[in-house]
Amino acid sequence: MNADLQARMRAIELVAIGASAGGVDALLTLLDDLPARWRLPVVVVLHLPEGHESRLPALFADRTRVSVHEARDKLPIEPATLYFAPAGYHLSVERERCFSLSCEPPVLFSRPSIDVLMVSAADAYGPALAGLLLTGANEDGAEGMRQIGRAGGLTAVQDPDTAASPCMPRAALALRQPDIVRPLAGLREFLMDMDDANAQ
């Protein structure tokens, strides 16, 4: 790993992750059993059907050693915490480092939208944001990843050849070359290295 990437990893204060089709299994590979030493806040948008309550907070609360919450309006973003977007709402990050929820129309047929989360987080955190885009069946998240890169943040995309649904990572690669393209195991290693760098 080069010195520039290590320095950028040390600056990260928030990790934003987006996924869609095949996303539950991908997130389990990526985030299962986060260690008790974990420090960074992580916020996840997974496309969910309208009217279906997300079970992700309960699923991951039983499988990891960090705090797990469903994101709520005006909830401050805390270290060492895993947040999931609620179903039926767009989730944004405010410059005051808290969440906001809205019922604006779907983006690319999706609410919550990965783009809405990532673009707002890029505006709030700039180079202190890392974005990861995983498997998915539409193009949501591609613009968000581009905006994270433009703001100086770190971007990582699941290798499309390893994705259950490659459309989403391929769309991101078509817009902007990310800092890292890896299979899920490699992205898990990247997350662990980033958290370790952040602790130094």
State the main characteristics.
single chain; 200 residues; alpha/beta; Rossmann fold; 7-stranded parallel β-sheet; two-stranded antiparallel ribbon; 20% strand; globular
In short:
This protein has helices spanning 3-10, 23-31, 56-61, 114-125, 142-150, 167-175, 184-199; strands spanning 14-19, 42-46, 67-70, 81-84, 90-93, 99-102, 129-133, 154-158, 180-182.
Describe the protein.
This protein has 200 residues and is an alpha/beta fold. The protein has one domain (3-199): Methylesterase CheB, C-terminal domain (Rossmann fold, 3-Layer(aba) Sandwich), CATH 3.40.50.180. Helix content is 34%, strand content 20%. The protein is built from 7 helices and 9 strands; from the N terminus they run H-E-H-E-H-E-E-E-E-H-E-H-E-H-E-H. Helix 1 crosses helix 7 (184-199).
Topology, element by element:
Blueprint: H1 3-10, E1 14-19, H2 23-31, E2 42-46, H3 56-61, E3 67-70, E4 81-84, E5 90-93, E6 99-102, H4 114-125, E7 129-133, H5 142-150, E8 154-158, H6 167-175, E9 180-182, H7 184-199
Parallel strand pairs: 1-2, 1-7, 2-4, 3-4, 7-8, 8-9
Antiparallel strand pairs: 5-6
Helix pairs in contact: 1-7, 2-7, 4-5, 5-6
